[in-house]
Every structure is written in C-alpha cells, then in structure tokens.
Amino acid sequence: MSAKKALPNKANQQYSKQKQAFGPTEEGTIVKKGELVDYLPLVKYVAGRLAIGLPRSVEMDDLINAGVVGLIEAYNNFDGSKGVKFETYASLRVRGSILDELRGMDWVPRSTRARSREVERALSRLESKLGRSPTEAELADELDVTIQEYYHIIDDVSSAALLSLDESSFGEDDDKPVPLVDKLRPKDEPSALVNLERLEMRDLLADSLGKVSEQERLVIALYYYEELTLKEIGQVLELSESRVSQLHTKAVLGLRAKLRKRFMA
Question: Is 94 found in the same domain as 158?
C-alpha cells in the first residue's frame, strides 16, 4: 500500500468529494463549457498545494484566478480524441498557469536567491569532491557555518525551494528567476530534440535521486509523486514538518545544482 493510501491528502479527499457530485469524466469525453464550474475544486486544490510555504504576501485568490485562466486554456486546447482525461490535462494547465503567475510576482527576495545559489554551489563542489551527496554536517562545514546556522539558512530558502522542481532556476546574476525549460533550448527547435532533452533530464533526475539520502529520496517521492503535504510526510516519516522542509530543501537544491551544471554550462 502506498503512503498516499495510508495517509490520504485531506485536500485531495475534499476535492474528490466535491467532484463526485458531478460524476467522472471519461477518457475521450469532450467537456462542455458549462461544465467548467465543476472543475473549480480542482483549481482550488492545485492552488492550495502550491501555496504551501509561500509568504503571506502571496494572495491565495491571485493563485486561484491564475488557475482559472489555466482551466479555460485547458478547455480551449483539449483534444478528447487522444484518450486523455480532461481532468488530467486540466490539472497540468492549471498548475502551469499558477506557476507562471508566481514567476511574474518575483516574490523571492534577492538575499534569499543569493543564499540559495550559495548553497547550490557548495553542494556541487562537495558532490564533485566526494562522489556522493554530502551530509548536512559536511555541507555546514563547506559553508563555514555551525550546524544550527546551516539549519537557519535552509529554513530561510525553503519557501523558494518548494517550487524549485516545478518552476524555475535562478539566473547567474541571482536577479531574475529563469524558467528551466527556457534555458534548455531555443523555442524554434524541432520537437524531436525537445523530447530527447526532456528524456535526458528525466534520466539525470533519476540518477541524482539515487545519490541522495534515503530520507531525502522519500520526501521528494512523497511530495512530488504521492502529492502529500509536508505535514503529512512528517506523520509518515515521524518527523516534524520543519525537519521535512529542511530535507526537501537540501534535496531540491542538490537536484537543481545538477541540472544547472548539465544544461546551463
């Protein structure tokens, strides 16, 4: 039994209950425009997950509004003949639209970006030297800080790291967030090459995950694949929510450092 089944996501349960009143959307079904309101719980669910860890200055209503734009775009572009559920397609478009909104807000302070890049560089240096993911004590030593100071640094950059695998990588000047996909290829390249690059990135991520600690790997799997919240992951792993956030941040910064080294050299 998966962790998600053992500890269901409350928001997901709520979304499922609200959705049941309208019945399932079968594969290949063409969604009618009047039915879009049925998918508003999906928008709220996706926005709620992405809002975790963001500062209070980021308004939930802004994320939901952006998600509704994504939902409408999904309706306009959905091709039911391809055998994909509208719900699946819409969730991706909603997520992407919200991430675009967050990217446009540029809510991460410059100091946080700079600190994030500092940790990334330290991780990259140590991994090249050690041939493995460094321990937290080793990383603290490389940063020339105490272990408690290291935890404060990780806590400081954790809100930015919550979106790191989904959203963007910071530019070399630590000023503006740059979408990773925009750094991978020119927009006019053939789709075959695009697919090859994405497969290569997927393989790199899989290889990178194999080198992090077991706890970090579990946190990444439970958060991004099982879609548990940090609090729920803490209950599964018997860790505090803040400790889960620290493990997530270290793992994500390490993965992002590898992606930067491979694709942005």
Answer: no
